[in-house]
């Protein structure tokens, strides 16, 4: 009985270690590469966890990828984003960010979500909320193409769109931040932190997999639907990014928080769906990707509200609270559909 609390404690330690080493690497490579690195690292591990659980669970896990990816989108676009805006607005009266970069990221997330999670509900080539092989191949290629194009935009010519800004809209470069007094870590220290970051992320997912039987039992014991397992997986995997985004918001680096939130949502779809599409060749049973009616409504209102939040380039605590309420609605409907 004491084994699972001990594993949970080690899991929390691994999460804190991942956040620390991610911040060290981010300080070395600068923004937005630091946020991008953490988002990709977490998503790659998330894909490994989903595939492992689908292989072990057989046909009962046909919708696990959809449940986990949709939960990740809701948690990042409402939970991490809303908490970051709320913390920034409470601490500094107004949360200021770069509207160009945030809008571009949000448009990419919305397109990926519709193509990969909404369209399967309405296609007729296969029974149920499934893609045909040709449709799944298109969704995978489109996801990778959009993600690659966004990364090129974020790290290339339009890199300034994804850097923090002052209240007057002036971009804050890496060397200009008032919280960056310390010199960047050496290359050797950054490489060590990168290795430790990957180790910590692997530990997070590995420990979560060890806890998965207890999670399944708890979900069943509380009378929750099996799809809620995907929500718990997403919550565990996104813990490092949640803490990192909150820390950035406390330092008035709202744009970094939004880079983490929307970048994680984008990577969760843009990398997970192609990987699952390839894995579906040998995975047993069907692959259900289409969302239900209440999930589509939640996605639509989330995109609408996030667009209204992003357009002005600044937000009050009200916008943060609105997003957190949407997260609460998602969690409630996931537990009691």
TrEMBL record:
Keywords, sorted A to Z: Membrane, Transmembrane, Transmembrane helix
TM stretches of this protein: 33-56, 68-90, 102-122, 194-212, 218-239, 260-283, 289-311, 318-336
A cellular component annotation (GO) from this entry: plasma membrane
Organism: Actinoplanes regularis
Sodium/calcium exchanger membrane region domain: residues covered: 4-155, 193-333
Keyword set includes Metal-binding: no
Protein name (database record): Ca2+:H+ antiporter
Subcellular location: Membrane
């Amino acid at each position: 009985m004491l084994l699972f609390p001990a594993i949970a404690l080690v899991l929390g330690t691994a999460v804190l270690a991942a956040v620390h080493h991610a911040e060290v690497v981010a300080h070395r490579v600068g923004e937005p590469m630091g946020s991008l690195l953490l988002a990709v690292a977490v998503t790659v591990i998330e894909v490994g966890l989903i595939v492992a659980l689908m292989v072990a669970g057989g046909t009962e896990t046909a919708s696990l990828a959809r449940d986990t990816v949709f939960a990740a989108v809701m948690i990042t676009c409402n939970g991490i984003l809303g908490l970051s805006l709320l913390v920034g607005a409470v601490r500094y009266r107004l949360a200021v960010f770069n509207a160009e970069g945030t809008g571009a990221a949000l448009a990419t997330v919305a397109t990926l979500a519709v193509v990969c999670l909404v369209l399967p509900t309405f296609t007729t080539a296969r029974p149920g909320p499934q893609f045909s092989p040709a449709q799944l191949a298109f969704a995978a290629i489109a996801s990778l193409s959009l993600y690659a194009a966004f990364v090129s935009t974020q790290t290339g010519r339009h890199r300034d769109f994804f850097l923090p800004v002052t209240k007057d809209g002036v971009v804050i470069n890496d060397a200009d931040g008032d919280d960056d007094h310390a010199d960047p870590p050496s290359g050797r220290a950054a490489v060590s932190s990168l290795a430790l970051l990957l180790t910590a992320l692997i530990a997070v997912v590995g420990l979560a997999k060890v806890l998965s039987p207890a999670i399944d039992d708890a979900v069943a014991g509380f009378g929750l639907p099996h799809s809620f397992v995907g929500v718990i997986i997403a919550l565990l995997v996104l813990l490092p990014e949640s803490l990192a985004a909150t820390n950035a918001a406390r330092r008035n680096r709202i744009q970094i928080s939004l880079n983490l939130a929307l970048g994680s949502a984008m990577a969760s779809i843009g990398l997970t769906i192609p990987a699952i599409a390839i894995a579906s060749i040998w995975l047993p049973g069907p692959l259900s990707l289409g969302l239900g009616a209440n999930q589509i409504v939640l996605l639509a209102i989330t995109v609408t509200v996030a667009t209204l939040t992003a357009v002005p380039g600044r937000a009050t605590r009200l916008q943060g609270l609105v997003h957190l309420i949407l997260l609460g609605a998602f969690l409630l409907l996931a537990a009691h559909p």
